[in-house]
Amino acid sequence: MAKEKPHVNIVFIGHVDHGKSTTIGRLLFDTANIPENIIKKFEEMGEKGKSFKFAWVMDRLKEERERGITIDVAHTKFETPHRYITIIDAPGHRDFVKNMITGASQADAAVLVVAATDGVMPQTKEHAFLARTLGINHIIVAINKMDMVNYDQKAFEKVKAQVEKLLKMLGYKDFPVIPISAWEGDNVVKKSDKMPWYNGPTLIEALDQIPPEPPKPTDKPLRIPIQDVYSIKGVGTVPVGRVETGVLRVGDVVIFEPASTIFHKPIQGEVKSIEMHHEPLQEAYPGDNIGFNVRGVGKNDIKRGDVAGHTNNPPTVVRPKDTFKAQIIVLNHPTAITVGYTPPVLHAHTTQVAVRFEQLLAKLDPRTGNVVEENPQFIKTGDSAIVILRPTKAMVIEPVKEIPQLGRFAIRDMGQTVAAGMVISIQKAE
Ligand SMILES: Nc1nc2c(ncn2[C@@H]2O[C@H](COP(=O)(O)OP(=O)(O)OP(=O)(O)O)[C@@H](O)[C@H]2O)c(=O)[nH]1
Ligand SMILES: [Mg+2]
């Protein structure tokens, strides 16, 4: 496998039906990563199959195919001349934003797909906001379905302006905006001859130019948030996740938290094997999506949301008797947040835990960070604040200064993202 090429994880995000899965299917098809007979087979599977022949490359669940939407994240690998890429397809439907968060938490870069027919829609905004919150610094915009607007430059410019406004507000700079038709294959892999007015990169060229990641946080403590746990014949229990920080080597002793706290005994053992995309590795680095087997750790000992770390520097656990201080921005709340607001669900790395607002310490000016009010009675949409939160269950979270990858979170309630934030410090009860 091309270990010499930089490895990047790219999540495809955007509003439901704007063509994320179709774009990925088209990318794989036009690079001969998907044989023609598979697409043909989908076409012959009735009306849905015809319309979703490219999307079904990624949408493999029965319910996804029946409903014509993506529900859970799916991964695929892919190579460009200069990059080794893991593509993560996220669902756009508002009911599955929590799965989108899991996908985005594993990504270094995002492709924001916006249909030219629709423009910026609610989950275009929500996904872009979450991508920013989860620390995705590089973004590529694909304005899709250009075939449905007759490849018209004016239609493209209109949507481009909407997206630019949104992304600039979130602090993104210098992102390509590419007019594509995933369905017809324009500007995905092949340069389109229907849009002579466009002379920027194709989508695959833009993917190939994603800046190599900043120096890898290999000097930080090891943290691997677990995404899934499998039981594999002949191997045993295989937790799967992305190495966020540190280095994992075969032979290391690792511990899982908060599993160890919850079971009141160390859930730990020696790493027997590591693999990535079905190939064995001796060591894994930040950005690697791996499966690994740990001696003595069973399938029921651990689950999604646990974090693996070395026993000499284990993941930080916050229990219901502890609290943490955080800075948040309220994105969307119908009324106002007051002390006692509970139980909105906090999403961080791969975990989800209900939290209670214990104290509102200060309201800040979102532009300068200066305190504008001490101990406010309430905070509302648009406000930035310093708050104290208490989890209802033990969870792993880290101060953003120490491990940024595990210090950012989103808070969701009533089917929408209420706030996003970062952990300043943790207060242990004893
Ligand atoms: N005409 C046209 N149709 C497209 C294009 N891209 C996608 N579609 C159609 O739009 C519908 C939705 O496509 P998907 O790829 O499933 O959209 P998605 O963004 O993955 O949707 P979710 O994952 O459910 O959020 C399908 O019927 C596609 O065939 C395009 O470029 N042109
Ligand atoms: Mg999809």
Bulk shape: globular
Number of helices: 9
Summing up helix and strand content along with how strands pair, one would put the structural category as: alpha+beta
Radius of gyration: 22 Å
Helix content: 10-25%
The tally of strands reads 24
For the largest sheet, list the strands in their spatial order: 2-3-1-4-5-6
Low-confidence stretches: none
Rounded mean pLDDT score: 92
Summarize this structure as a short list of keywords or feature phrases.
430 residues, alpha+beta, 24 strands, 33% strand, binds magnesium ion
Outline the secondary-structure elements.
Elements: E1 7-13, H1 20-30, H2 36-43, H3 46-51, H4 62-67, E2 74-79, E3 84-89, H5 97-104, E4 109-115, H6 122-133, E5 138-144, H7 153-169, E6 177-179, H8 203-208, E7 224-232, E8 236-242, E9 248-249, E10 253-257, H9 259-263, E11 268-276, E12 279-281, E13 283-284, E14 289-294, E15 307-310, E16 317-318, E17 323-330, E18 345-348, E19 351-364, E20 371-374, E21 384-391, E22 395-396, E23 408-413, E24 416-427
Parallel strand pairs: 1-3, 1-4, 4-5, 5-6
Antiparallel strand pairs: 2-3, 7-8, 7-15, 8-14, 9-13, 10-11, 10-15, 11-12, 11-14, 16-22, 17-21, 17-24, 18-19, 18-23, 19-20, 19-21, 23-24
Magnesium ion binds near residues 55 and 89.
Description:
This protein has 430 residues and is α+β, with helices and mostly antiparallel strands. The chain is 18% helix and 33% strand. The chain contains nine helices and 24 strands. It has helices spanning 20-30, 36-43, 46-51, 62-67, 97-104, 122-133, 153-169, 203-208, 259-263, and strands at residues 7-13, 74-79, 84-89, 109-115, 138-144, 177-179, 224-232, 236-242, 248-249, 253-257, 268-276, 279-281, 283-284, 289-294, 307-310, 317-318, 323-330, 345-348, 351-364, 371-374, 384-391, 395-396, 408-413, 416-427. The strands form five sheets. The chain has a six-stranded mixed sheet with strand order 2-3-1-4-5-6, with helices on both faces. A six-stranded antiparallel barrel has the order 7-8-14-11-10-15. Strand 18 (345-348) and strand 19 (351-364) form a beta hairpin. The termini are far apart. The model has no long low-confidence stretch (mean pLDDT 92). The chain binds guanosine-5'-triphosphate and magnesium ion.
